[in-house]
Amino acid sequence: MKIIYEIACFDYESAVKAAAAGADRIELCSDKSSGGVTPSLGTIEKIRGEIKIDLNVIIRTRGGDFRCSDSEFEIMKRDIVHCRNAGVNGIVLGILNDLGQIDVQRNLKLVELARPMSATFHRAFDMSPEPEKSLEDVIGCGFARLLTSGCPGNAVDGISVIKNLVKRSERRIIVMPGGNMRKDNIRHIVDATGVGEVHSSSVNIIGCYESPAKFCTKL
Fold first, then answer.
1. Which residues, including other chains, have CB under 8 Å from residue 169's CB and lie 6 or more apart?
2. Containing domain of residue 189, as a range?
């Protein structure tokens, strides 16, 4: 089983470094202190022109909660069009309603607007009160991938939830753990949940997990 490594990068230099280190995909953001917001178009175009691996871009206007005003929604739509025109492979977003539930109507519209780019629902999911219902809502919106720590904390603490999400998804969506993924815990998380993709902000996790079958072929 090959593990897909997605690395979150917050500037041009880190994206180039991650690609050179062997990342399979970049999640590009800016402003790490806020949890990540949409980077400038110039940054997106520069990175897209210089790396060969998949590039996904976060679509988020600000830090804080994951609710969305009408004006913020219009900005997100414009940013999605810019990303599509720049040759980006996918977008990463997540809008919640006032009750903390998945805002199905708005997320669905953005996913449809983004096509043929893929869409990942980010860790706003971990703020929703009912993971199983939220999973079905995310799938119904057409997202290809769900990034989750399984809880508001980290992926180690959320292992049981992540495992359940993988089982309930029945391959209708890719469940990708993220949140404090490190070199010393990735094997445990992958083995415990059965995921095939992982997300981290550190290039040090790249290549540190190999399935027994793959390892045996190298002996």
1. 135, 139, 146, 175
2. 4-217
Q: Which helix (H) or strand (E) holds 45?
A: helix 41-48
CATH of the domain at 195: 3.20.20.380
Q: For residue 217, what pLDDT is reported?
A: 32
Measured at the CA of 51, the angle between CA 49 and CA 55, to 5 degrees, comes to: 90
CA separation for the pair 109, 54 (Å, rounded): 23
Say whether pTM exceeds 0.90: yes
| 79-113: pLDDT as tens digits | 999 999 999 999 999 999 999 999 999 999 999 99
Look at the chain and report how many structural domains it folds into.
1
